[in-house]
Target: Late embryogenesis abundant protein
Amino acid sequence: MKFVKFGIFALALATSLSLSAAAQDVSQDLKKAGHETKEATKDTAHDVSKGTKKAYNKTAEGTEKVADKTAEGTKKAYHKTAEGTEKVADKTAQGTKKVATKTADGTKDVAEKTADGTKKVATKTADGTKKAVD
Model:
């Protein structure tokens, strides 16, 4: 009986030590998993930060290119508008000169015809007066 009691005691002691060791293994596994999760979170945050900075820089670069192209297009449009305005001004000046010349020619013709008509009327009036007096 002593031997059986000792066997039961030894078995209980071994089971207790085994359970204690298993509990320590589970605790270590949990600590390790927590540490690995912490490190993975840090790595992920670092990668997200790196990606955000890269996207920011690419956006800034793209914005600068667009601004340069817009300025270039604006200058080109300005020059085309200036050229068009100059052409229109030249055509307007030519048209004005033509109209002024034609107006002057027309006025000269009207003045000459008025003078001729006045002479004819004066002559006829003089002839009519002379006939009436005679």
User: Anything to note?
Assistant: The two ends are 192 Å apart (CA to CA). The mean pLDDT is 80.
